[in-house]
Amino acid sequence: QVQLVESGGGLVQPGGSLTLSCAASGNIFGVNTMGWYRQAPGKQRELVATITRGSSSNYADSVKGRFSVSRDNVKNTVHLQMNALKPEDTAVYYCNADIRRRLGGPFFAYWGQGTQVTVSS
Length: 121
Known about the structure:
Blueprint: E1 2-7, E2 10-12, E3 18-26, E4 30-39, E5 46-51, E6 57-59, E7 67-72, E8 77-82, E9 91-100, E10 108-111, E11 115-119
Parallel strand pairs: 2-11
Antiparallel strand pairs: 1-3, 3-8, 4-5, 4-9, 5-6, 7-8, 9-10, 9-11
C-alpha cells in the first residue's frame, strides 16, 4: 500500500501565506515527479506545480512568482509555499506523486485525499 497524506490547509486572508506539505509512505521503491493540483467548486482539477526528482519545477501561469514547490527525496515529501494568496486560489489542493513499488517496476500516479485552502477576508 502507498499513501499520500497532505497537511497545512486552512483559512487565510487575501495577501497571506500558507504552506502545504505531503508525505508519501508505504511500500515505495522510488518516487519520480511529485506535485500539487487543485480543484475549485464547479471547475476541473488543474495543475498548480510539479517538481522532478532532480528538482526541476513547473508552475501554472496563475501562481508563478507567488508559489514555490520543494521536495525532500529522502523523506519522500513535497511542499508548496503559497504567498500573496488571492480569493481565486480557494480550492481543494491535492498532492500527486509518481511512485513505483519495486525495482524495475512501472510508475503509477498516486493522489492524496486533498486539503482545503480558503482565501477570504
